[in-house]
Amino acid sequence: SKVIYINTPLEIIMQRIDIGQKRGLAVPDGISVSDVYLERKPLYEKFSQLTVDGSKSIEQLVSEVNIYTSK
Prior knowledge:
Number of strands: 2
Number of helices: 3
Strand order of the largest sheet: 1-2
Largest sheet: 2 strands, parallel
Order of helices and strands: EHHEH
Distance between the termini: 13 Å
Shape: globular
Helix content: 40-55%
Low-confidence stretches: none
Radius of gyration: 13 Å
């Protein structure tokens, strides 16, 4: 399997959470979203085979992932 990291700036993540996205974010009690972001980011960078820019549109992301996974 392939690990794909959608690298999204923290500011955009916070905006998306504020909009009320239906998908939740797994954050333990007492830990901030920022803390989780800073903890996970190096792991995603280390273990991913592809990193895509999470500030792009969904359509652009899907296109990039499709190109990568079709190789």
